[in-house]
Amino acid sequence: TADTGSLRQRYGGVRDQILGITFIRADGEIAKAGGRVVKNVAGYDLMKLFTGAYGTLGIISQVTLRVYPIPETSGTVLLTGKPEAVSSAVRILQSSELTPTQVDLLSSKLVTSLALGTGIGLITRFQSIHESVEQQSKRLLAIGEKLGLQGVIYQGVEESNLWQQLPNKIYDHLTESTITCKIGVLPTAAVEIINQINIGLIHVSSGLGLVRLENPDQILPVRNLCQANSGFLTILSAPVELKQRFDVWGYNGNGLEVMRGIKEQFDANLILSPGRFVGGI
Fold first, then answer.
1. Which of 12, 23, 41, 97 is 20 to 30 A from 142 in CA distance terms?
2. Are residues 123 and 142 in the same domain?
3. Number of H helices, E strands in the chain
4. 57 lies in which domain range?
5. Is residue 44 a part of any domain in this protein?
6. How many Cα atoms are found within 13 Å in the side-chain-facing hemisphere of 90?
7. Which of 108, 142, 170 lies at the terminal end of a domain, its last residue?
8. Global pTM?
9. Greatest extent of the chain over all pairs of C-alpha atoms, in Å
10. Is residue 2 one of the residues assigned to a domain?
11. Could you tell me if 156 and 215 lie in one domain?
12. Is residue 200 assigned to a domain?
């Protein structure tokens, strides 16, 4: 699915971590791409092609992933307040020497529903040796205070619970009528977008995010808002009849013919997940 989370800030997306794959082709033959270690990776980069193809090109049977050591210490700074001040904090953070592993923007309703404060939120996580985490956390907290933002530092179990609560709140108490969506916008427009969303979050580095909509009438306005900022809105979960009314993917790019050509090469008889992908591929 190529799905990714806040850690993309530091490590990149899933496709960036795959060194090699073994997959079953549409004709039943087993094929391989990449290798088991970085220096042995060669040939066509099918790993990136298959990541996010939703099983339409082949059945992945084995994956070799790049791994990283677990950081010694972790600390999270949460800043809340007015959009203008949060926007300034984001710009300062991105131009500074600080090295966060996760940075997300939180909608005001998500902030208040978790009793984290008022206004929109900027949540930033640092993971490294103890001294570095402590220094960077205090530095960002000071930046926020100068901008008039309320700031709190979270550590330990309290910090872990906070990061788990964010996506859980979006998916919490899902019913047949609940609508959850994945969005993407220009990172430079992220603060403006999150300020117009009820419940949601956006990853600062990529502009990707999750939103929860309360009724179908919100889908098109939010999709139009994203598309106006060079982005998209894809419906993840919704009632079946609603998915039949709307274009779930919301794709308006110019790559459909290329995608269909690739599908033709890998699965000419449309055996693998037919109609599962963008444009009915």
1. 12
2. yes
3. 10, 11
4. 18-65+256-280
5. yes
6. 28
7. 170
8. 0.91
9. 62
10. no
11. no
12. yes
Inside any domain, residue 146: yes
The total of other beta-carbon atoms located within 10 Å of residue 247's CB is 15
Using the 8-state DSSP alphabet, how is residue 34 labeled? E
When divided into structural domains, the chain yields a total of 3
- Tokens 């391989």 -> residue: 32
Residue 30 token pair: 């087993």
Q: Indicate the residue type of 256.
A: L
Instruction: Tell me the residue type at 277.
Output: F
The DSSP code sequence of 225-279 is: HHHTTT-EEEEEE--HHHHHHS-SS---SS-HHHHHHHHHHH-TT--SSTT-SGG
CB-CB contact of 119 with 106 (8 Å): no
Structure-token match 């090295």, residue found: 99
Cα 69 to Cα 101: distance, rounded to the nearest angstrom: 13
Q: 157-216: per-residue pLDDT in tens?
A: 999 999 999 988 888 766 667 899 999 999 999 999 999 999 999 999 999 999 999 889
If asked whether residues 79 and 119 sit together in one domain, one would say yes
Q: Which of 170, 196, 225 is the last residue of a domain?
A: 170
The upper half-sphere exposure of residue 3, i.e. CA atoms within 13 Å in the direction of its Cβ, equals 7
What residue type is assigned to position 34 of the chain? G
pLDDT tens digit string along 49-82? 999 899 999 999 999 999 999 999 999 999 999 9
